[in-house]
Amino acid sequence: MRNQDNNHAGMLAHQEEDAEHWLADTRRRIRAAADEGRRLMIEGSGSRQDFAGVPQGERLSLRPYRGIVHYEPDDLVITVRAGTPLADVQQGLAQHGQMLGFEPPLRPGATVGGAVALGWSGPRRPFAGALRDHLLGVRMLDGEGRLLRFGGQVVKNVAGFDVARLMAGSLGVLGPLLEVSLRVLPRPSVERSAVLAATPAQALQLMQALPTGPGLLTAAAHVQDRLYLRSAGSLACVQAFLARQGGQCMEPDAAQAFWSAFTDQTHACFTPPTDGLRLWRISLRPGAAVLPSELAVPCAIDWAGALRWVWAPASAAGGLVAWARAHGGHATLWAHASSGERHGGVFQALPAPVMRLHQRLKQVFDPRGVFNVGRMYPQF
After folding, report:
1. Mapping DSSP to helix (H, G, I), strand (E, B) and coil, where does residue 233 land?
2. Alpha helices in the chain (DSSP H)
3. Are 44 and 83 in contact (CB under 8 A)?
4. CA-based nearest residue to 186, from 78, 97, 55
């Protein structure tokens, strides 16, 4: 037993030494790029380089910088290096009956840093909070290769203007994340799902009448004329809640398979129905109506009605953006777009004051434009 402990300690010491060497080399590389006017393209595992704009520069991979830095289950906080695979984190949390509450989508090899940089949250978002709500602190590098730390490793450290949360969805344009501290949640001891037939209009009417925030409901999504509801709590309360909604209770294994496929976008609904269509993501204010059929082909509805997935050609951008704005939201060209289409940007244009704020933040964190130029907007 003592030899095993010694071997484990030696392995950890070797990993720490490798991590420090990688960090020192990376800081030198960033400083050299800044001095020489070169650009760097940040990536985790490269699992979502098909999303957003096409960045410029040499690849800077964070995969070597991995591992759990600190995790005490009683604290409900985990701190991990950015290159750590999400699957490893979820497996470690599951061993202690815990989970990431924002239910991040997975692709093979997806990393924690990539998840934070993308800022995506799964179906649990309206009921447990978005990724940024679970992000307590970050350690990162700026465009001069300097180490920066924001936030902390406990909830009470997050006070005032929370700079760490700026990193959620920043797509690496402000700099590479090194470590992230995330609030974790207890895994429900009982979670059940039900499914009922419903058109998109009927599903929206039902979903928009359901309560959001913490409670019995943990997901509500509409796919292929079926409304799926997921509930967690005591068995009696969950069964009673789902019974009031109607529909048919799903077997636990079938429910888990559905939610995993839906969250990770491997479900059949995310396959283009015809050639030439692109997948669009439209985030809206609660209560928005059904998207007109002349604008797009429905794919799915998530977040209890606040998130719509639709199929439409890239040429439909103007109509989709206008409709999203009219309903308090925004449209994003999500998947199946060519690199040429992505060079023009996948996000709708921001109002001028908001764009100036983005540019000022970029100037503060990356004054010489080293990181991920073109990833978020063509101009930076």
Report:
1. coil
2. 2-36, 86-94, 112-118, 125-128, 131-134, 200-207, 235-245, 252-264, 317-326, 339-343, 352-365
3. yes
4. 97
pTM of the model: 0.90
Cα–Cα distances (Å) from 283 to 176, 286, 368, in that order, read 26, 9, 33
Q: What is the pLDDT along the chain (380 residues), one digit of tens a residue?
A: 555 555 555 556 667 888 899 999 999 999 999 999 999 999 887 777 788 888 889 999 999 999 999 999 999 999 999 999 999 999 999 999 999 999 998 888 899 999 999 999 999 999 999 999 999 999 999 999 999 999 876 554 444 457 889 999 999 999 999 999 999 999 999 999 999 999 999 999 999 888 887 789 999 999 999 999 999 999 999 999 999 998 899 999 999 999 999 999 999 999 999 989 999 999 998 888 899 989 999 999 999 999 999 999 988 999 999 999 999 999 999 988 787 788 777 888 888 999 999 999 999 999 999 999 999 988 77
The arrangement of strands across the sheet holding 330-335 comes to 248-249, 191-197, 226-232, 217-223, 297-302, 307-312, 278-283, 330-335
> Cα 165–331–108 angle (5° rounding)?
65
Gyration radius from the chain CA atoms: 22
Helix, strand, or coil here: 64? Answer: coil
